[in-house]
Amino acid sequence: MQKFKYHIDLYNTEKVDIMRRKQVLRQRKVLHYPRLDTVLMVEDTIKKMKEYPTRRQLWLSLPKKMMYQTFKVILEYLIDSTKIIIKDGKVIWIWNPELVKKYLESELVVK
Is CATH 1.10.10 the classification given to domain 18-105? Predict the structure, then answer.
């Protein structure tokens, strides 16, 4: 009889498509959902960092401490909203509001 092992890597966006990751997140029980000010604190910390931190370095450098599980939920939200990516273990801020503003102001031609 064969035994199958299933593993879903929630942090590697190259291996797991977004829809599957969202399904896994819905099934997972979260003890504590973060408040908006906490999410904004993590966003600001990522943007202000001079180097790309690892998850642990980022978590330790936050101005206020939080549970690691809550921190992971925030990272998953930022990944799903395409504000960050995690590449080679480093957290990288990719959101560019100036580029979005430029495209919103230009006339889009749909054919």
Answer: yes
